[in-house]
Design a protein that fits this description.
10 strands, 10-stranded antiparallel β-sheet, alpha+beta, globular
Length: about 220
Amino acid sequence: MSSLSPTERTTLGRKRHRAASERAVLHAVLDEALICHLGVVRDGVPLVLPTGYGRDGDILYLHGSTGAASLRAATGETDVCVTVTLLDGIVYCRSVNNHSVNYRSAVILGKARLVTDPDEKMRGLHVLTDHLSPGSWEHARAVNKKEFAAVSVIALDLAEASVKLRAEGPDDEPEDVTANAAWAGVLPVRTVFGEPEPSADLPPGWTVPEHVTARVTKAAATAR
């Protein structure tokens, strides 16, 4: 199994036992989450923006309008930071100070590049679409020339990344456990898909496509 090969910047300073070392764990976190946060420095000021993305092997593709100043800043000489977090539970402890959360998070650092090759750019858009709404690339209208020209795609290598996880119960002080004065436990947090809501201007006769209903069915099965 491929290692993350941590660098000085991606080595955890605290709670090092929660660091994952396998690249497969990084891939799993990125594949499950739907939105990342892109951190850039624009005009000397830090800026963090929620952004759609998709993973193709060890390349992360992100996209936005060609007019977006944040994307232009992201492909400059300064490194960017992309973060992803999955919240799995609220940890209730016997003391307020020890309350916590169960989570899986990833941080990727590096220099992003603007994708200029038309074939790779289209591939990046395909990967992005498949990540957010699998099946839509084949079902919906293809990207036209005007749309293709109006969107920017950037690529970030996953070479420098860290993953941190917590999947534990309460971590209480022994005296608080003995005192038995408060409830302790974990409240699980799950993201699920609801029932699809057809567009108001959709003519009669349409049924929800299988690539949409399959996500609802899969989410329901996972929640059981």
